[in-house]
């Protein structure tokens, strides 16, 4: 009877398809001082399964990895090299609505970047909004008020 169970298990189609990871771009901030540091980080990351390309910008302390990878796995691999690493915390200056709100402006940020903080836009008072709307160009009656 053992042979029949074995053969029946072979005949039953049990496919467990794993979901393929999507192509991602992972950006990591890593302080690299020399060519040796850069080489160590690049070799550690390019050996991860699914990595298509690795770009390193030593001036910005930025490593960009493209491919079918898990971001946490890439970060862990970079941390294993002995370098302190974190996900890239900056976004371009022109993307942020209020770049000088507290906790956004960072002196350590590279030129043209600010810290990526989920911020709530400061809400104007209701009276300020009403007064501003009276004299805006969108209001067709603005000339009659003046």
Automatic annotation (TrEMBL):
Keyword Membrane among record annotations: yes
Pfam families associated with the record: HMA
Localization of this protein: Membrane
Similarity comment: Belongs to the HIPP family.
UniProt keywords, alphabetically: Cadmium, Lipoprotein, Membrane, Metal-binding, Methylation, Prenylation
Organism, scientific name: Perilla frutescens var. hirtella (Perilla citriodora)
Domain HMA: 23-86
Protein topology in the membrane: Peripheral membrane protein
InterPro entries: HMA_dom, HMA_dom_sf
Cellular component annotations (GO), alphabetically ordered: membrane
GO biological process entries: plant-type hypersensitive response
Keyword Isomerase applies: no
Transmembrane segments: none
A molecular function GO annotation: metal ion binding
Protein name in UniProt: Heavy metal transport/detoxification superfamily protein
